[in-house]
Queue: 2 jobs
Job 1
Amino acid sequence: MEPVIVLVLEPNPWCHLGFVHVLKDDPQIKLLDGVDHNKIIALGSIPTGLDPTVVMLSHTLLVDFKLSLLAKIKDLFPKANILVHGYEANIDKVAEILIAGAKGYFLLSGQPENLLESLKFVSKGLIWGPPEAIARSLGRLISLKDIKPVATRADLISPRERTLVNLLSKGLSNKEIANKLGVAEVTVKFHLAKLYKRFNVQTRLQLLTYAIDHELISGRKWETRASL
């Protein structure tokens, strides 16, 4: 069985040490230690060398950066599931966190040994948290399933993706775009694949046409290259 790779984003050093103490001896857990949470939050692209199964995210950081931080963590670590930890016992607030994209909420007033179980649950894509909060979050999602959301242009494409598509419109190759953005070429390919799937297109030219037609980027002529 592959270990659960855990990245802990916790601003309180004593709380962080507590997590290390609980998790370090479990053979099924691999801790990515020595990572500065401030540097992670400040990142603008997927980091290299970090591929966690679960990101443990302090509720304190959500209070500071709001629920939008969950979306950013998912962008930075698209393969990871998020387990929020904190002392928030309000069922409605925990439900909001689950609806916003977290896979679980671990209440720090609970038993420390339950943390191991919660990590293993969340690593499999299962939901962990107070039963009332889980039920409430699922109830809200079910009640909204037939309501078509009104998407704004900002919802359709992130600033980072808009920059990528603008570079694409200049006829740059994946390698050239990667050099411009300071990321790996595989990162560019990953984001292009996401955009292809989101907008139901199959080529760069189709993606550019869609982006201009829907005013996701400014309409202008672009160079044509064989790589298109």
Job 2
Amino acid sequence: MTGQLPPQSSQDHPLVSVIMNCYNSDQYLKEAVDCVFAQTYSNWEIIFWDNASTDNSAKIAKSYTDERMRYFQGELTVPLGVARNLAIEKSSGKFVAFLDCDDLWMPEKLALQVDLFKNEKVGLVYSDVVNFINGKTLSRLFEHASPIHGNVFSELLQHYILPMSSVVIRKEIISEIGGLFDNRFH
């Protein structure tokens, strides 16, 4: 049902809120949503924020009857950062993940990343990404470079390399810093 809260999470399998912001993204939308449903980790909710789309995006999103799919529609189109913050406000999970409507996840993505949060010092996990067109692999993000790890804040200020659809972050960190996306920027 639209807007309904999912079941409470357990200690071993905390709830992950998957933020999907959509603006006229009907072309690949079903595939993107389906890849969340195909996850081996099942304690997730999709916070689907429709940024006042005028195509078939709403129809596609509303076709899912699973209570983990929570649909919200903005009255006006707003910048992506604003829309992401609005969606995060609706989320209930201990962790927040992002999936753009033209991206796909491998089935084990959430299971592998959530497992890394067993270390309480871990605040954010990201992964490699594969760029492809029409099923043909073009490149991998870390094909020729190693991912950074540890306390990466200063390095990320110099070289931001985090594809949003690869990120999972502790929600408490978003709250501590007063929001993830600066609404002054598009």
